[in-house]
Amino acid sequence: MIVFSPDEKYYTPEIRGGFRIAEMTKRYMAVQLKVLSEIDSVCEAHGIRWFAEFGTLLGAVRHHGFIPWDDDMDIAMFRDDYKTFLKYAVEELPSTYRVFDVHSNSEYDDPIGRVVNNGRIQFDPAYLAEFCGCPYTAGIDIFLLDGIYDDPVAEKDRCDRAKLINEAYG
After folding, report:
1. What 3-state class would DSSP assign to 105?
2. Which of 35, 46, 135, 151 has its CA 20 to 30 A from that of 91?
3. What pLDDT is stored for residue 77 in this prediction?
4. What's the confidence (pLDDT) of residue 142?
5. Torsions phi, psi of 145, nearest 5?
6. In this model, does residue 110 exceed pLDDT 90?
7. Three-class SS string for 24-69?
8. CB within 8 A of 41, min separation 6: which ones?
9. Taking residues 44-67, what's their average pLDDT?
10. Average of pLDDT values for 92-105?
11. What is residue 153's DSSP assignment?
12. Which pTM was predicted?
């Protein structure tokens, strides 16, 4: 289980790798870690596997945290795990959180999933206290991992679908 409880000292601006990280950027990063910890709680409760991906993985290895100039977190789940996550996430994540998925939200057309802590900027004192003094919506992108099929027909179908998605978003 991920536990992240920053103190006020964490939010002090710093120079990391020649890049200045402002106080609000650090607060935004802290909220992303909070969202990730909620995702991790659901995953742990249901045996769902997830993995750090892209800049999140690179930052963890190279920078021992966030890449200083990166502004989001990316994780990946195998498709079956993702379907299980969606089954439980809406019920088990905090009530202010929103889950975006192309299959469950007709207004969302991105091929990746996303979990956010809220749907709008808020300056309410209770909200700011809960979300590290950051008024902005923060979230985690969830990329799907598909296995390779042993059946050549099923594998060709998977590849064809992937090509269509790449062309649509390329």
Report:
1. coil
2. 135
3. 96
4. 96
5. -110, 125
6. no
7. HHHHHHHHHHHHHHHHHHHHHHHCCCCEECHHHHHHHHHHCCCCCC
8. 1, 92
9. 91
10. 89
11. H
12. 0.85
Distance, in Å, from the CA atom of 92 to the CA atom of 77, rounded to the nearest integer, reads 18
**72: which 2 tokens?**
């989001």
Residue 88 has pLDDT above 90, yes or no: yes
CA separation (Å) from 163 to 120, 131, 157, 167, 168?
34, 39, 10, 6, 9
Give the whole-angstrom CA distance, residue 97 versus residue 41. 14
Contacts of residue 121, defined as CB under 8 A and 6 or more positions apart, other chains included, come to: 135, 136, 137
CA-based nearest residue to 141, from 120, 111, 109, 107: 111
According to the model, what pLDDT value does residue 170 have? 61
Q: Which of 84, 3, 102 is nearest to 45 (CA)?
A: 84
Q: pLDDT averaged over the chain?
A: 89
Helix or strand or coil: residue 87?
helix
22 pLDDT higher than 70: yes
Q: Residue 148 has which token pair?
A: 């390779």
